[in-house]
Amino acid sequence: MPTPNKTWSAIPGRRRSATADRPLTQLRTAITAFFALDGFVFAGWVVRIPAIKERTGASEGALGLALLGVSAGAVATMVMTGRLCRRFGSHPTTVAAAVLLSLGVALPPLTGSALALGLVLLVFGAGFGGLNVAMNSAAVDLIAALRRPVMPGFHAAFSLGGMAGAALGGLIAGRLAPTPHLALLAAVGLLVTAVAGRALLRLPVPEPAPVSASASASASASASASASASVEESAAPAGRTPEDPARGAARRLVAVFGLIALCTAYGEGAMADWGALHLDQDLDASPGVAAAGYSVFALMMAVGRLSGTALLERLGQTRTLVAGGATAAAGMLLGSLAPTVWLALLGFAVTGLGLANLFPVAIARAGALTGPSGVAAASTVGYGGMLLGPPAIGFLADGLSLPIALTTVALLAAVAAAVAYGTRGAGRAGGDPA
Question: How far apart are CA 47 and CA 41, in angstroms?
């Protein structure tokens, strides 16, 4: 049995046995549990925001500023988490971030002012951002060992966990005050972290599976090119340290994949904050139907992610990204400009299906290029889309109209598809076709 300080890998030329695959299966289960926990805890907090607002007596403006604490804490922590993963490993960092997230969710109802709420949400946001980078980094390592594009499955667990957290919160919100409810979430989070974290800390980081002979030849050629570049660099004039071209190209690709993640997160943030209002205000939907708008969107995102691995294996990464972006663009045009509620709901569903795999594939490709730092960089850029989306749409809605403002989601989805097509063949990971 491997020790925590070693890695495992398949033996070239031999078929792996069920016993050899068992650690990978256990690791996949543990990482999936953390993705589900992340969505569950975050959604549980979101459904109690109205009650927290009432408890603190904050105005809408003050609450909006306080809620920025989550985003600020997450963004500030994401880049640092990449460094922590490189130094201590993604597995211990995942467990530590999950503990911080679980403890942080219990703090908001203990505050009595908007200022205090904003400060504790910095802690909660730090746990949320740290966990997102660390568990995605662990997932990228596992994908390299499995040589299967299973990242959408992890993000499906996040979506399903979020739906469960929101459903549970909706059921008990009228019966349980925010303090015991969020304390219960903290206890569940710590319990799941203890169980899944024990497996995660016991299992080593898997070694990438052996590649084919052609890929090995390509890697050898790349290594030779890098060696030549090193010789040229050593001959450069003193005081100059030319950047490794391959490393510079990888960083540029990470930024590109971060842009795809940003376009996706922009749409998710817009749907969460403005979808129900569009149905209610512009199409005269009942409160129940308006609330169902985001539920339909989220459900189809989960469905799309559950089928994402099969889709990637059949179509490849680039076709999946291009098809997803084009589908989301068409869906959001329908959802924002449809004259009836039911057509708008259909558009929201198609949008969720189209956006489902863009973010996980972009993060996986960034991580395959530069490891935890790539995950951190792409996640930070992507999360910026969730920050940018709601205020940008609000500004455009004031100047134009909400339906027209929501078409920017379609525009950015189309941009993601175009960018994905433009980077076809670049940053291939996990043995997937481009």
Answer: 10
> What string of DSSP letters covers 217-234?
HHHHHHHHHHHHHHHHHH
Q: Which two tokens stand for residue 58?
A: 């904050």
| 180 three-state secondary structure | helix
Query: Would the pTM of this model clear 0.85, i.e. be above it?
Result: no
User: With pLDDT > 70 as the criterion, what percentage of the chain qualifies?
Assistant: 82
Mean pLDDT of the chain: 81
Q: Higher-confidence residue: 231 or 379?
A: 379
Distance (Å, whole) CA 36 – CA 165:
10
Q: Where residue 18 falls among pLDDT bands split at 50, 70, 90? A: low
Report the pLDDT averaged over residues 31-37.
95
One-letter amino acid at 273 equals: D
Q: What does the block give as tokens for 90?
A: 């993604």
Residue 134: CB atoms within 10 Å: 30
Distance from C-alpha of 293 to C-alpha of 116, rounded to nearest angstrom: 33
CA distances from 152 to 111, 320, 355, 385 (A): 37, 11, 11, 19
Q: Which residues contact 212 (CB under 8 A, 6 or more apart)?
A: none
Nearest to 88 by CA among 131, 134, 55: 134
Query: CA separation (Å) from 348 to 113, 191, 274, 410?
Result: 36, 35, 12, 11
Select from 382, 176, 344 the least CA-distant residue to 262.
382
Phi and psi angles of residue 125, each rounded to the nearest 5 degrees, phi first: -65, -35
